[in-house]
Amino acid sequence: MLDLGRTFLQSVERSPGNLAIVDGDKALTYRQWRDEIAGLAAGLGSVGLKRGDRVLAVMQNRYEMATLHWACQFAGVVVVPLNWRAKPEEIGYCVQDAQVGAVFFEGVSAPAIEAADIASGVRKVSVGMGAGAGDVLAFEDLIQPGGVLEPLAGSEDISLMLYTSGTTGNPKGVPRRHRQERTAALGHVAQNLYRRGERTLGVMPLYHTMGVRSLLSMALVDGAFVCMPKFDPLHALEQIGKHAVTCLYLVPTLYHDMLKQYVPGTHDISAVRKLGFAGASMPDGLLIRLQEVFQPELFVNHYGSSEVYTFSIEPDAVKKPGSAGRAGINTRLRVISLDSRDVGRLAAVGEEGQIIADLSGDEAFEGYWNRPDADARSIQDGWYFTGDIGYLDADGDLFVTGRVDDMMISGGENISPVDIESVLSLHDAVDEVAVVGLPDERWGQRVTAFVKLRYPADAAVLDAHCRNSDLQNFKRPRDYVFVQSIPKSPVGKLLRRLLIAGQYERVDASGNEQRPVSGAGEKS
C-alpha cells in the first residue's frame, strides 16, 4: 500500500493547479503547497528530527498545522497533535509520554507551553510569533527553499499519534500507521461519495480523528481544505459561500450553531451537496432542520473513534433518524451482552448491549501507547470494546444509545439518554437538551432533562410532549432543569459529568431568573 507522502504526490501529479489549501488570504495550489511542504520536511531534518521521531503540535487549524502534518508524512516523523487549549500539565505529560523531539506552538498556546515541564533537549518552534529566547525557532526560519520531496516513510511506519480526551486520568496515545490512516481516508471518501475536486471546511480540529480525516480525504480527491483556526458560525457560513464548499463533516453542535446564524438570501450555501456528522448523536429536530435548509444529495451519519476510525455508516440519516447504519467497508461489528466479556455472546435483536469492533479491520489500531492496562480493558480476543451501548434492529441497523458510563438505572430499569433527548429535541421550544441520572433515594437515579430553551416553556409542557410521543413511560424525565447552556467538549460532545456535578447555570422557564425549575411527577 502507498504511504501518505506518495499519496499526496498523486494529487500533485494529477492536478497540480487545483486549489489545495486556503487560510485567510493564503491560497495555494497543489504544486505550490508541495514546494512549501518540501521546505518544511527538509527543515525537520536540519534540526535533528529523523524517521520515527515524534513532534508535538499544539496549534489551531491553520496553514502551518496542515503543512506540518504533511511534512511529517514525508519525513517519516510522527506528528502528535494536541488540543491547543491543553493545560501545561497535559502538555508536559504528552511530551514525556510520547518522548517528542520538538514542540510546535502558536500564540494562543504559548502560555501553556511556557508553563509546561518540557525537557531542555526538546526543540521549540513558534508559529506566527518569530524566533524567541533560548532554543525557540521560528516556523518560517525552519523552511528550507528548494527542498525536494522524497518520501522517507513506508506504509508500515507510524503516521501520527492521537491522544484521547482522558476524562478520567491521563490521556491515552493512539498510534496509527500510514496504511491505517490511508485506508481510513479511502473509506471516508468512498462512504461519503466524494468526487475529484471537492472542497471542505477544515473546522474539525487536526488533533481529532474527524479533522485529520477531512485533511487526508481532500488530498485523495485533489480537493481543497479551507482552514478555520477557530469555529465561528457566521465566519463558517461566509467561508462556505466564498470558497464554494461542497461537503461538510462536522459534529452536531457546529451544525446547530450555524443554523442559528443562517439567513436565507444572505448566506450562500448552494454549493454544499453532502453533509456528514459524527462525534455525537444528532437530535431528530436538528436532523430535520438541516435537511430542510441544505437539501443535500447525501446526508451521512458516521460512527467511529480514534482507535477504529469507522465503526458504522448510515448513508441516509434522514430516512432512519437515529440509526448509525451498518458496519463500514473496512469493519466488522457486534453487539454483545452488557455484562459480558465474551465476544461471542451476542445480544438479541432489539436488546441493548456493548458495541465491539473487529481489530482485524484495516482501519483499526493495534493497541495504546505504553498502556497495557488500557489494552486489557478495551481489547479482548481481537475485538475492541468501544465503551458504547447500542442495539441492532430487525433490519440489522445499529442504534447507539449512549456510553456504558452514561447508562441510568432508575427503579431497576436500564435507561439510555439518547432516545429521550431525540424526543425532546422535536419540541419547537427546545434548543438543546441533555439527559442524565441524578441520585435519588427511592429510584436509585432520577431521569433528569437539562434543557436550553428557544422560547419559554415549562416542565408540564415538555412532559406532555413526552407523554404524547412513543417514548416508554418509565423513560420520561421526572425533573426538568432549564439552563443557560449545555456543557460540551471542544469538539462538541456533551459533558454529562458536569451536569451531574452541578456545573451549570440555571434559568427559569422564561430563560431569565437563575433558579431551579422541576417536577414532571413521580415515576409511574
From TrEMBL:
Coiled-coil residue spans: none
Superkingdom: Bacteria
Keyword Transferase: no
Family membership noted in the UniProt record: Belongs to the ATP-dependent AMP-binding enzyme family.
Organism of origin: Paracandidimonas soli
Molecular-function GO term, any one: medium-chain fatty acid-CoA ligase activity
Domain AMP-binding enzyme C-terminal per the UniProt entry, residue ranges: 420-493
Protein name: 2-furoate---CoA ligase
Keywords on record: Ligase
Domain AMP-dependent synthetase/ligase: start-end pairs: 10-369
Gene Ontology biological process terms from the UniProt entry: fatty acid metabolic process
